[in-house]
Amino acid sequence: ITPAGQPQNFWTTYIMFMLMVLAIVMYSSSSGTEVASLKTNKVMEIVMTSIRPLPFYLGVTLSMGLSGLIQLALVVLCFSVSWNIAGILTSLQANETAAFLLLFIGGFLLYSFINTAIASIVSKNDDLTTTMVPVEMLAMVQFFICVFALESDSAFTSVCSYIPFTSPAVMFVRYMMGFASAGEMCVSAAILYGTALIMALLGASFFSRGSVHYGTVKDFRFRQR
Fold first, then answer.
1. pLDDT classification of 225: cutoffs 50, 70, 90
2. Contact 166, 141 (CB under 8 A)
């Protein structure tokens, strides 16, 4: 990427899309880690006797998400003060800040619902890495696509900005760089949140079966028949 001749908000977009991708990867995986910890410690068996799977499934995901957002806000605040880049961050317009939050929260929910459901079938920590790494790699695909989206717009980046698994960061970059309108961003966000809702419903069903499974991951589908 050649920053020379780029729009004024180039570096703001660059910093914020990297922050978005890393936060989605880290905090969505933390939801799965929490579920795996509850299961390996046998706490889940106790909780499942008094709480239905769907509220418990959503509660773990949203609580970990809230703690992640608080931590992220503190990190951004400390980073701004320490490195004296408050001028860059405060130069964001209200619509740009709203776009970041809208797409970031949607992306976090989508990947958190997937990781939480998958982690429910894990019986030991060795299996946790095996099940969650592919999802984390899929989330990181956004990073490499955004590098191309920063330089120029293309049919490939345009399509990726509507695919829920890559749309959070890619659509944000396209919107910030002037390649996408507010209407296009809203359509992308609607698709993203719709997919997250579907994943939540499917994940709750998967979670209710996986939380009582204590065999190996490869035996899960056979034991549930």
1. very low
2. yes
User: Tokens 């939480």 appear where?
Assistant: 116
CB-based contact 118:131 (threshold 8 Å)? yes
Name 148's Cβ contacts closer than 8 Å, sequence gap at least 6: 154, 156, 157
CB-based burial label for 165 (10 Å; 0-12, 13-18, 19+): middle
User: Taking the C-alpha atoms of 60, 62, 68 and 72 in order, what is their torsion angle to the nearest 10 degrees?
Assistant: 180
Q: Do residues 160 and 166 lie in contact, with contact meaning Cβ atoms separated by under 8 Å?
A: yes
pLDDT higher at 81 or 106: 106
How far is residue 125's CA from residue 101's CA, in Å, rounded to a whole number? 32
Name the DSSP letter for residue 218. Answer: G
Q: Using the 8-state DSSP alphabet, how is residue 61 labeled?
A: H
Cα torsion through 136, 141, 142, 145, rounded to 10: 170
CA–CA gap between residue 47 and residue 168 (Å, rounded): 33
**0.70 surpassed by pTM:** yes
Other residues' Cβ atoms within 10 Å of the Cβ of residue 23: 19
- The predicted-structure confidence for 110-168, as pLDDT tens digits, reads as follows 888 888 878 777 766 666 667 778 888 888 888 889 888 888 888 899 999 999 999 99
Phi-psi region of 186 (alpha: psi -120 to 50; beta: other; left: phi over 0): alpha
If we measure between CA atoms, which residue out of 57, 67, 1, 64 comes closest to residue 31?
A: 64
